[in-house]
Amino acid sequence: MAYKNFKLLPKKTEKIETKYRRIATEIPVPESIPLLKDLRKYEPLSMSGQPLVVWDNASGFIVSDPYGNRWIDFSSGVLVTNSGHLPPELKRGLISQIESGMIHSYCFPNEPRARLVKKLVEIAPEGMEKVFLLTTGAEATENAVKLAKTWGRKIGGDEKNVIVTFEGAFHGRTMGSQLAGGIPSLKEWIGTLDPTFVQVPFPDGYFNPETDFSAFTDTLKKKGVEGSKVAGVMVESYQGGIAGFYPEAYMKSLREWCTQNGALLIDDEVQAGFGRSGRLFSIEHYGVVPDIICLGKGMGGGLPISAVMGNSKFMDIYGPGEMTSTHSGNPLTCTSSLVSIDLIEKKGLVENSRRMGDILHGELKKIKDKHPDFIGAVNGKGLLAAVLFSEKGVKTPNHDLAFSVVEKCIQKGLMLYAPLGPGGGTVKMNPPLIIEEEALMEGISAFSEAVEESIMSR
Predict the structure, then answer these.
(1) Which Gene Ontology MF annotations are present (predicted)?
(2) How far is it, in rounded angstroms, from Cα 298 to Cα 362?
(3) Cβ count within 10 A of residue 190
(4) pLDDT digits (tens, 9 = 90+) for 78-118
(5) Which of 4, 238, 272, 426 is 20 to 30 A away from residue 79, measured at CA?
C-alpha cells in the first residue's frame, strides 16, 4: 500500500524553546526546500516518505537541523543509535581507527573484527559459538535462511527445505528476505513465489485473537506441510510493524516443536537486539534459546553492520571462502560496534531501557485510555512502543490519523519516523537508550498534544 507523503509546503508553527526542543521556523524550513526538491528529483520516489527535516547534527538524544531547530529524538534513526547519537567515546574510537591507516581489509584478518566476534559470543545466549559479520539486516536474515536450508538438506534430504515465518513479518527488502517475510504486497513484484516459504498467523492477540500454539500446527496441516519437511522457523522476537510480542507459552511451544522436528529456530533480532526492549536480546523475554540469531541496526552504533550467530555445526557447514561478504568485518564498523556495546554495558543502558520503558508505557496507556475510540492498542516493552491508531470504534488501521500525529509531533519538536505497520496506522517510538526521564516526559507530552489536536481536527 502507498502511504501519504509529506508536502514540500512550509507551515507556520508555534515557536517552542525548552531545554531539549527548539522550533523557530516554519516546517519544513523554507530554506531547505531546494535541497528537498533535489532529493525528490534525483532519488527514486521510494526514498521519500519521511518527515521533511534536514538532519545536520545528532548528539545523544537530540537531533538538530542547520536552521536553529532541534528535536527530542524518538526514532534512533530507525532503531539504530541505541547507545545515543555519536557519543564522545564513539567519535574518539572512529577517529583512532581512521588514523591507524586502515579502514578496509575484506576478509583478511584485522584486530577489531577479532575483538568483535569474540565479544558477541561472550554476551550472546548459550549455544552461540560463531559469528558471521555482514552489513545489513537483510543480509543477515538471508544468510540465516541459507544456513537453515543447507542444514535441513544435510540431515533430512532435499525435501527438508521449508522455511516457516509469520504473517506480517518483515525480514528485509531483498528478494530472499521478502520471500521469507509475511507481507504479501512486498512480494508482488517477484511473481511466482517459492512454495518452500510458508506463513502462519502471528498471535498478536489484537488483529488475530487466536494466540494458542495449536494455530501454528493447524495452519501447517491445512497447507500440507509436514513437520519433518521444515528446515527452519524464523521469528522476529517482536514483530516490527506493530511491536507485537508472542505469548510466552506460544514461544516455548514453538521451541519444543522445532526441537522435535529437527527444525532450526531462527531469531531475527535486527530491530530488537542490544537493549531495545529492556533485555540485551529480546528473545530473553521468553526463556528460550534459538539456534541462530540475526543481528543488526543497534549493533553498529550508527554505522552499517550486521551478523548471523549460531552453533558451530550450523555455522561451519560451508568451507573456506564459500560464505563471505565484501565488507564483512570492516574495521571501522567493527570499532563502532565494539564501542557501542561497551557503552550499553558500562552505562547500564539495558536497565535504563527497562526503567524508562516502564514510564513510557505507563504514560501511553493514559493517552490510550483517554482516546479509546481511536487508539486500539499500545504494544512494546522497554524503550520500544507502538501506538496503533484505528478508525473510530473499530480495529481498522487509521493511516490519516497516524500521519497527522507524526506531522504535528515534528512541528512540536518531537522526532518520529513516518507511520508504518498494517494499513500505515502505527506510530512507533524508540528513543536512544540513554534518554533521561525529563526529556522522555517532555516528548510524551508533545505526543499527547499532537494526538489531541489530530483527533479534535477530524
Answers:
(1) identical protein binding; pyridoxal phosphate binding; transaminase activity
(2) 24
(3) 11
(4) 999 999 999 999 999 999 999 999 999 999 999 999 999 99
(5) 4
**Whole-model pTM over 0.85:** yes
Identical fold for domains 16-83+349-456 and 88-346, yes or no, is: no
Amino acid sitting at position 181: G
Candidates 345, 370, 450, 406; CA nearest to 74 is 406
CA distances from 93 to 28, 82, 259 (A): 35, 17, 42
pLDDT for 354-371, tens place per residue?
Answer: 999 999 999 999 999 999
**Residue 66 pLDDT grade (very low, low, confident, very high; cuts 50, 70, 90):** very high
> What architecture is domain 16-83+349-456?
Alpha-Beta Complex (3.90)
Residue 389's nearest CA partner among 438, 455, 301, 322 is 455
Q: Which letter does DSSP use for residue 11 in this model?
A: B
pLDDT tens digits, 369-396 = 999 999 999 999 999 999 999 999 999 9
Would you identify the CATH topology of the domain 88-346?
Aspartate Aminotransferase; domain 2 (3.40.640)
Residues 6+ apart with CB under 8 A from 190: 175, 178, 179
CA 405-298-87 angle, to 5 degrees, is 90
- Encoded amino acid at 30, one letter: P
Q: For position 1, what pLDDT does the model report?
A: 54
Query: At residue 237, what are phi and psi to the nearest 5 degrees?
Result: -65, -25
Lookup: cell for 453: 489536536
By three-state DSSP, how is residue 32 classified? helix
> Which long-range contacts (C-beta less than 8 Å, at least 24 apart) are formed by 278-283?
278/350, 278/353, 278/354, 278/357, 278/381, 278/382, 278/383, 279/350, 279/354, 279/382, 280/123, 280/344, 280/350, 281/124, 281/125, 281/237, 282/237, 282/238, 282/381, 283/125, 283/237
Cβ atoms of 71 and 415 within 8 Å: the answer is yes
Specify whether the CB–CB gap between 140 and 173 falls below 8 A: no
Distance CA 235, CA 132 (A): 19
| Helix 399-411 and helix 437-456, axial crossing angle in degrees, nearest 10 | 130
Residue in 450, 393, 447, 395 with CA at minimum distance from that of residue 421: 395
264-321 per-position pLDDT tens digit: 999 999 999 999 999 999 999 999 999 999 999 999 999 999 999 999 999 999 999 9
> Whole-angstrom Cα distance, residue 55 to residue 184?
33
Residue type, 237: S
Q: Is 272 helix (H, G, I), strand (E, B) or coil?
A: coil
